[in-house]
Amino acid sequence: MPKKNKKALIFGITGQDGSYLAEYLAEKDYEVYGIIRRHSVAESQEARIDHLVSKGLVRTDYGDLLDSPSLYKLLALIKPDEIYNLGAQSHVRVSFDVPQFTLQTNMIGTLNLLEAYRSICPKAKFYQASSSEMFGNEIDEDGFQRETTAMKPVSPYGCSKLAAYCIVRNYRNSYNLFASNGILFNHESPRRGENFVTAKIARGAVSISKKLSSKLELGNMDASRDWGHSKDYVVAMHKILQHHEPDEFVISSKESHTVRDFCKEAFSCLGLNYEDYVVQNPKFMRPEELKELKGDSTKARKALNWEPEYNFKSLVKDMVDYWQREYDLKYD
User: Fold this and answer.
1) Whole-angstrom Cα distance, residue 4 to residue 10?
2) Whole-model pTM?
3) Dist CA 182 CA 39 (whole Å)
4) What is the DSSP letter of 2?
5) Looking at 84, 157, 171, 274, which residue is catalytic?
6) Residue 117 near residue 175, CB atoms below 8 Å
7) 109-120 and 156-175 are packed helices; what angle lies between their axes, rounded to 10 degrees?
8) Residue 314 annotated in active site
9) Please, what's the b/e burial string for 173-209 (b: 16 or more CB within 10 A of its CB; e: otherwise)?
């Protein structure tokens, strides 16, 4: 008999990471299923995965991490081999505006999914999208954050992710589940939502280069982040679930750059000097700021044989090139 394809179930499939992960798994002949929340503008809801759905490479169903009956029903129906929980309220700045919703979705939602997972398909493998925001401003003496670094988050988002991280570890140990955490540092792509600073910079630079706008307003220019490409990081997610045992892994580029650096690189791709166009607006500042994130992904690189293909310059160029194509299609 032919070997059946593995089934993967992705929560958050319509997001940046979910769409790249769906593509990657489809290329590996997985049966890919995605859970989506109802959106008032249905025409744009599956924009990042339309090309996969139209080819029959992805099947989607409605569900919600805060609606336990839908989780039990979907897991029983699909019987996945691998579950990827990428669903979240994922914007750090917005988490200060909607802290209760952020905690409910990111922590209680994860708990609901774990309960359904252990009840319906406990032999499946479970991936939890954890975050470098869990570290807060804690950093080791060598300037890096790693799996053993203390975690003291400085945002409701970071707190929600730390709570989910801990409950995943607890369920793994309590119920003998293959449940792993990927502690992903910042990762971007052309598919990054436009309200995130990297997409805002890439789009803003292109808009200014085409004389459609004259300035770009940003918050803290000196915040430093470890930026990688989403395409590389979804490969790491898959590798984490192929590891011989469940564990925690930091996924990062091992370099940090400031928002100012990102601006400089994006504008220079277009032959412009960012200092002529970028202004700081206090409304984009966080109530408590996270100064620097720089991850040590040595453990993942050795144990999982993972290496990123993109570096900082190629990431920024990929995003700027995307927005150039978008503006060319719209205005030329």
Assistant:
1) 19
2) 0.92
3) 28
4) P
5) 157
6) no
7) 20
8) no
9) eeeebbbbbbbbbbbbbbbbeeebbbbbbbbbbbbbb
111-147 tens-digit pLDDT:
999 999 999 999 999 999 999 999 999 999 999 999 9
276: CB partners within 8 A, 6+ apart: none
175 in active site: no
Torsion over CA: 23, 24, 30, 33 (sign): negative
| 127 has catalytic annotation | no
Active-site annotation holder among 133, 188, 248, 265: 133
Residue type for 248, please?
A: E
Nearest alpha carbon to residue 113 among 68, 165, 156: 68
Residues 261-311 have pLDDT tens digits of 999 999 999 999 999 999 887 766 666 667 889 999 999 999 999 999 999
Distance CA 224, CA 215 (A): 22
**Given 131, 189, 209, 297, which residue is catalytic?**
131
The predicted structure's pLDDT at residue 285: 64
